[in-house]
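Project outcomes to date are best conveyed with an example. Our students and postdoctoral researchers have been running inverse folding experiments weekly, and each run begins with a structure described purely in tokens. The record below, which covers 307 residues, was selected by the lab manager from last quarter's runs and is presented without edits.
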């Protein structure tokens, strides 16, 4: 059965938030993940914040949510949120609380956090919203623990995010959780998003941080390394994949990634090792073989060298 990704579209919705987040999952489907993308709303006929009619969208009460589904609450015009017209039906509050209790992950993009706060689900939780509205959110809902200057916050099954393109960051984060970092990278690259941000915008995964460039040949090499990490490294072969001379390849790789080729490969190895050691059925020797190393000692040395 497909996992459902549901987008709750509010009246006067922000088109960037809808398009960015939903397109990430649309591209993910092209790469083979089994997903069903669903759009729903609190009202019958929806217009975007810039006046684009979105037509009739299925009412939320007709959407059945299951464990493992993901519900996005998309932002709307802040003036609408602050107006007397902005009301949250009691039936919706029951619906979303039941969804949360049934292990549906809930994500509020930008000021979608205001709607989520009205349901009570953010009480006592860390959360965030657009940087212009964090103080308002905290003032209106004093039980919330509103975080400043972060891209997104995840707290016990609920994600809230900043504005702009943060919905893309949240969606890529979720893809990495559902699949892995490399899968998220492939989708990000398809969308020409070469730098994926995490919630605190702190240190990025080496798989993504080093991809913040547009050089096709170097990306081909990085793809090859990812897919063939268990094999012995041959720099001459890598330069051939990039269609460059050995010397030019080494120079361009360092210029584009700020790492030497060997540094990059070893940091990718460490990233893979950190995932593999979570599997208690794998010995250190097996892990070494899976990342192109010869011994347990090399695994330990690599972890210490890049700590």
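After processing, the design step wrote out the following sequence:
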């Amino acid at each position: 059965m497909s996992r459902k990704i549901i987008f709750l579209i509010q009246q006067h919705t922000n088109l960037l938030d809808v398009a960015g987040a939903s397109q990430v999952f649309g591209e993910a489907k092209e790469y083979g993940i089994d997903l069903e993308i669903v759009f729903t709303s609190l009202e019958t006929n929806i217009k975007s914040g810039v006046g684009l009619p979105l037509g009739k969208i299925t009412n939320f009460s007709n959407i059945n949510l299951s464990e493992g589904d993901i519900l996005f609450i998309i932002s709307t015009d802040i003036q609408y949120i602050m107006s007397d017209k902005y009301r949250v039906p009691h039936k919706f509050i029951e619906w979303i609380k039941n969804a949360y209790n049934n292990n549906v992950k809930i994500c509020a993009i930008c000021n979608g956090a205001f709607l989520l706060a009205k349901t009570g689900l953010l009480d006592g939780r860390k959360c965030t919203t657009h940087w212009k509205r964090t103080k308002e959110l905290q003032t209106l809902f004093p039980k919330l623990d509103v975080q400043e200057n972060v891209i997104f916050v995840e707290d016990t099954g609920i994600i809230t995010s900043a504005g702009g393109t943060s919905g893309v960051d949240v969606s890529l984060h979720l893809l990495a959780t559902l699949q892995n970092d490399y899968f998220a990278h492939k989708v990000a690259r398809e969308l020409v998003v070469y730098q994926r941000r995490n919630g605190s915008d702190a240190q990025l995964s080496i798989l993504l941080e080093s991809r913040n460039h547009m050089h096709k040949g170097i990306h081909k090499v990085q793809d090859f390394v990812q897919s063939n990490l268990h094999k012995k490294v041959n720099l001459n072969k890598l330069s051939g994949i990039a269609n460059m001379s050995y010397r030019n390849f080494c120079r361009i790789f360092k210029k584009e990634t700020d790492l030497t080729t060997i540094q990059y490969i070893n940091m990718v190895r460490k990233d893979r090792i950190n995932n593999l050691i979570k599997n208690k059925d794998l010995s250190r020797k097996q892990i070494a073989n899976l990342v192109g190393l010869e011994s347990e000692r090399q695994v330990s040395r690599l972890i210490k060298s890049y700590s």
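The two ends are 41 Å apart (CA to CA). The chain has two domains: 3-183, 213-305. The training component of this project remains on track.
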